[in-house]
């Protein structure tokens, strides 16, 4: 729980912080690995799936506030398990695509999350992890394949 000057904003902030800490990640019973998910709540219709936007852009910043070590583990796990098919709307927990498509914001979520994590935690040691270097090179190549040859636009498969 974090103190916030505005009581109403503080209540909302802390409720969401608790949600992201206890509902947006889960640890597997069989191998003890961490899985960032949309939600572990039975009230959520698409609970046990991974979405880059939800996990890396919305959930990870909350984890960084609550438990930086857990946030580091979640980020590395997302890079390891899900980054080989970046930009898909939803992934099964094994990394496969639930809904094959491509959205640029989902694709960029890995790099944005990594940058934000390093800036806010000052943990530059994460950049020495082998999976980080592999993912950055792969993403660079994949993005170059989607860029228009003359205009700075990337191809996507989802319409607004």
Number of domains: 1
- DSSP strand tally: 2
Structural class: mainly alpha
**Which consecutive residue ranges, at least 5 long each, have pLDDT under 50?**
none
Number of helices: 5
Helix content: 40-55%
Summarize the helix and strand pattern as letters. HEEHHHH
Could you describe the largest sheet, including whether it forms a barrel?
2 strands, antiparallel
**Beta fraction of the residues?**
under 5%
Q: Quick one: overall form?
A: globular
Spatial extent as radius of gyration: 16 Å
- Summarize model confidence as the mean pLDDT: 88
Spatial strand order of the main sheet: 1-2
C-alpha end-to-end distance: 37 Å
Can you describe this structure?
- By secondary structure, the chain is mostly helical.
- The chain has one domain (7-146).
- It is 51% helix and 4% strand.
- The protein contains 5 helices and 2 strands; from the N terminus they run H-E-E-H-H-H-H.
- The chain has helices at 7-22, 52-66, 68-82, 104-121, 130-146, and strands spanning 25-27, 34-36.
- A hairpin with a 6-residue loop joins strand 1 (25-27) and strand 2.
In short:
The chain has 160 residues and is mostly helical. It contains five helices and two strands. The chain has helices at residues 7-22, 52-66, 68-82, 104-121, 130-146; strands at residues 25-27, 34-36.
Q: Can you tag this structure with a few keywords?
A:
160 residues, mainly alpha, globular
Topology:
Layout: H1 7-22, E1 25-27, E2 34-36, H2 52-66, H3 68-82, H4 104-121, H5 130-146
Antiparallel strand pairs: 1-2
């Amino acid at each position: 729980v974090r103190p916030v000057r505005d009581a109403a904003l503080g209540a909302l902030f802390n409720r969401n912080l608790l949600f992201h800490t206890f509902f947006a990640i889960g640890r597997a019973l069989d191998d003890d690995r961490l899985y960032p998910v949309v939600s572990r709540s039975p009230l959520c219709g698409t609970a046990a799936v991974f979405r880059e936007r939800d996990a890396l852009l919305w959930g990870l910043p909350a984890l960084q506030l609550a438990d930086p070590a857990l946030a580091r583990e979640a980020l590395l796990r997302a890079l390891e398990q899900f980054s080989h098919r970046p930009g898909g709307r939803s992934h099964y927990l094994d990394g496969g695509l639930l809904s094959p498509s491509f959205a640029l914001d989902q694709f960029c979520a890995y790099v944005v999350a990594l940058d934000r994590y390093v800036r806010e935690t000052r943990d530059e040691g994460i950049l020495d992890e082998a999976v980080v270097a592999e993912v950055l090179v792969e993403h660079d190549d994949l993005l170059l394949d989607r860029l228009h040859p003359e205009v700075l636009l990337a191809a996507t498969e989802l319409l607004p």
